[in-house]
């Protein structure tokens, strides 16, 4: 997998964020805030894990 | 046993959790429309449906196949309507070569279907909110009715009050005159004994 292939997961993270942000909330502002927070969390966690694994492979394999 | 006195109904809508779940399972977002949240239903339909369609396109419309990808199909089945329709429309369709975006597309379709479970759960949560709000409204109505009847009964003799409760309202009766003041009664020392007649 190349670095650019990670871009495929941004739309998926967007979908997951919207779906989870809208669940249990009624006001559009709350939904947007929750979706934004979920998106940031997903990008940081998944991207962080991906970068970490990539660096481990680069340095030690 | 129904609550007494019966509640006179409230403005909170009544929705079936089973119907909401089935509708949401058949079409993403339809459960929200059924429970009275059409905008949120449209949001789920566009987001989940768009992701599902994008995944199908990335795999050349071949990723919904219970024989080739049985474990993925279990996840895809959480979006029952789209998956059944796709499986029926694309049966017998095989890709001539494995597309480089097949894995990503398969992930898109399956994640979209899994997220439909979240959408269905959200619709069921709305049904639960309605149920709780209706219970509170009914309890308040019943308490207000009981308070009103108790206030009316406080001005009536006990027998009449019971009759009024049983009749479900106020009984029109002649209220007896009030008792004389205590000072008009004889003292204890001058009170007549048993068998004595007061002149």
Walkthrough of the structure:
The complex is a heterodimer of chains A (61) and B (199). Chain A has 61 residues and is an all-alpha fold. Chain A has one domain (3-60). Chain A has two helices and no strands. With 199 residues, chain B is mostly helical. In chain B, helix 4 runs parallel beside helix 6. Chain B is rod-shaped, with a radius of gyration of 35 Å. Residues 1-6 of chain B have low confidence and may be disordered. The chains are: A mainly alpha (61), B mainly alpha (199). Chain A binds chain B through residues 5, 8, 11-12, 15-16, 18-20, 22-24, 26, 31, and chain B through 37, 40, 43-44, 47-48, 50-51, 54, 101, 104, 107-108, 111-112, 115, 118-119, 121-122, 125.
Largest sheet properties of chain A: none
Average pLDDT level of chain A = 90
Largest interface: A-B, 14 and 21 residues
Task: Report the span from N to C terminus of chain A.
Answer: 16 Å
* Share in helix of chain B: 55-70%
Structural class of chain A: mainly alpha
pLDDT averaged residue by residue of chain B: 84
Low-pLDDT regions of chain A: none
Q: Say how many strands of chain B there are.
A: 0
Keywords:
heterodimer, A: 61 residues, 2 helices, B: 199 residues, mainly alpha, disordered N terminus
Task: Give the arrangement of secondary structure elements.
The complex is a heterodimer of chains A (61) and B (199).
Chain A: H1 9-22, H2 28-60
Helix pairs in contact in A: 1-2
Chain B: H1 17-26, H2 30-34, H3 38-58, H4 70-76, H5 80-89, H6 102-153, H7 158-167
Helix pairs in contact in B: 1-6, 3-6, 4-6
Short overview:
The complex is a heterodimer of chains A (61) and B (199). Chain A is mainly α and 61 residues long. Helices cover 77% and strands 0% of the residues of chain A.
């Amino acid at each position: 997998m190349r670095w650019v292939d990670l871009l495929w997961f941004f739309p998926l993270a967007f979908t997951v964020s919207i779906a989870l942000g809208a669940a249990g909330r009624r006001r559009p502002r709350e939904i947007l805030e929750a979706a934004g927070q979920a998106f940031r969390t997903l990008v940081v966690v998944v991207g962080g894990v991906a970068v970490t694994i990539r660096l481990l492979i680069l340095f030690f394999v | 046993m129904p609550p007494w006195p019966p509640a006179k109904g409230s403005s909170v809508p009544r929705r079936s959790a089973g119907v909401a779940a089935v509708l949401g399972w058949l079409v993403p977002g339809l459960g929200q429309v059924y429970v009275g949240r059409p905008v949120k239903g449209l949001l789920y339909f566009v987001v989940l449906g768009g992701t599902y369609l994008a995944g199908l396109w990335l795999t050349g419309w071949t990723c919904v196949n219970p024989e080739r990808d049985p474990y993925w199909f279990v996840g895809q089945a959480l979006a029952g309507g789209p998956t059944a329709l796709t499986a029926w429309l694309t049966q017998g369709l095989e890709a001539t070569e494995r597309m480089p975006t097949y894995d990503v597309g398969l992930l898109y379709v399956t994640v979209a279907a899994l997220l439909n479970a979240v959408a269905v759960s959200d619709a069921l949560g709305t049904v639960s909110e309605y149920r709780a709000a209706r219970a509170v409204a009914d309890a308040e109505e019943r308490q207000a009715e009981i308070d009103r009847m108790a206030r009316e009964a406080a001005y009536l003799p006990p027998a009449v009050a019971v009759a009024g409760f049983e009749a479900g309202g106020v009984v029109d009766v002649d209220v007896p005159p009030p008792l004389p003041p205590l000072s008009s009664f004889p003292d204890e020392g001058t009170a007549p004994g048993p068998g004595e007649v007061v002149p």
